[in-house]
Write a structure and sequence with these properties.
globular, two-stranded antiparallel sheet, binds ligand FNR, about 45% helix
Length: about 375
């Protein structure tokens, strides 16, 4: 199949990846109500078609923290991408650089921040607050030294949400023996992935936390360590600790409530991502797109407001901009494309998003992404 839409990359990833990785990407928490809501609420928004306006000059670019993005899109932090394609984070970072947009590297990436930075452009760096503050300090220092400028501090994961699909697929909760047998079986039945990732994509460790996990050999050993080390005691005061080490822009990721957004401003953040972690944390919360307008009203003039969750096309990007986001981030869209075929597929997917966004801008009479506003929407929707 030649992929034409994000749904097609998803299908290709489903065929190529061992189920434990496909289900990890595709799934959400509990009954996945929020995961579905992210997509459904986005779909329900109607764009307002306008015609016969000279749309020969379009400007898709936006400027964020002094960096010009070729379109208002970034790649959200996605853990373990190096298990979806050989050295997956490096491949995705290169695709993002090629497209002129930022790539945000997860704390729990296979490739370390040094490896990704050395392969091209230093990424944005995503931080999970772990109990070991000494280690946090060291990790932030490494990201800084690698040339990362923007820190994305994820605040909606003081503990991991329950993801039932991961249990069913054997990704989590298995004993060492059954886990190893299951992995071997899933690998044997997915030879393309086995050759690319299992044989040629080693080491399969989490590069950023490797030195802290003694004796870890498999990715699941690392996930166990991380799950034990998430810090539930974290508060806004901890941002002071981060600020001591980080002098660049700090973006708070995982805000759904306007009061939390105001607290993020008070704590000195430069940006926030309206996000429910792609429906992977507290199932039952509202969709990101429905949370966006109230947050923009509350803090939109104080810091940069971004969103993620349910963005599956360039049309969705324009809807998010119309509701006040400065840019949006793609999560599953790029993870599917990477799983479908590495960097070339991520590049192709981003090309699709760009051309869909252009089409939407032309047919709504929006000449520049930076000036998108509510007038692009059909208010009756
Ligand atoms: C994520 N997300 C995520 N977020 C984060 O801050 N750190 C991380 O390590 C991860 N890991 C991760 C893995 C996978 C497989 C997925 C799908 C997502 C959440 C991600 O950054 C983003 O918030 C959502 O993916 C956005 O929703 P969509 O675009 O997937 O609908």
């Amino acid at each position: 199949m030649k992929p034409a839409s994000v749904a097609d990359y998803r299908e290709l990833a489903r065929r190529r990846l061992p189920p434990m990785f496909f289900e990890y990407i595709d799934g959400g928490s509990y009954a996945e109500a929020t995961l579905r809501r992210n997509v459904a609420d986005m779909e329900a928004i109607a764009l307002r078609q306008r015609v016969m306006r000279d749309m020969s000059q379009l400007d898709l670019s936006v400027e964020i923290f002094g960096q010009k993005l070729s379109m208002p899109v970034g790649l959200a932090p996605v853990g373990m991408a190096g298990m979806y394609a050989r050295r997956g984070e490096v491949q995705a970072a290169r695709a993002a650089a090629e497209a002129g947009i930022p790539f945000c590297l997860s704390t729990v990436s296979v490739c370390s921040v040094d490896e990704v930075a050395a392969a091209g452009t230093p990424p944005w760096f995503q931080l999970y607050m772990l109990k070991d503050r000494g280690y946090m300090r060291e990790l932030l220092g490494r990201a800084k030294a690698a040339g990362c400028r923007v820190l994305v501090f994820t605040v909606d994961l003081p503990l991991p949400g329950a993801r039932y699909r991961d249990v069913r697929s054997g990704f989590s909760g298995a004993t060492a023996l059954s886990g190893a047998l299951n992995t071997a079986w899933q690998g044997m039945t997915h030879p393309g992935w086995s050759w690319d990732v299992y044989q040629n994509g080693k080491p399969h460790t989490l590069g950023n936390v490797q030195s802290a996990v003694n004796g870890g050999r498999r990715v699941t050993d690392f996930l166990g360590w991380i799950a034990r080390n998430f810090d539930r005691s974290v508060t806004w005061a901890d941002l002071d600790f981060v600020r001591e080490v980080w002098d660049g822009p700090i973006v708070i990721k995982g805000v759904l409530d306007p009061e939390d957004a105001r607290d993020a401003v008070k704590a000195g953040a430069q940006g926030l991502v309206v996000s429910n972690h792609g429906g992977r944390q507290l199932d039952g919360v509202r969709s990101s797109i429905s949370a966006l307008p109230a947050i923009v009203d509350a803090v939109g003039s104080d810091l940069e407001v971004f969103m993620d969750g349910g963005v599956r096309s360039g049309l969705d990007v324009l809807k998010a901009l119309a509701l006040g986001a400065k840019a949006c981030f793609l999560g599953r869209a790029w993870a599917y494309a990477l799983g479908a075929g590495g960097q070339p597929m991520v590049e192709k997917m981003l090309g699709t998003i760009r051309s869909e966004l252009s089409t939407a801008m032309v047919l709504t009479g929006c000449v520049s992404a930076a000036s998108a506003d509510k007038l692009l929407l059909d208010v009756a929707s």
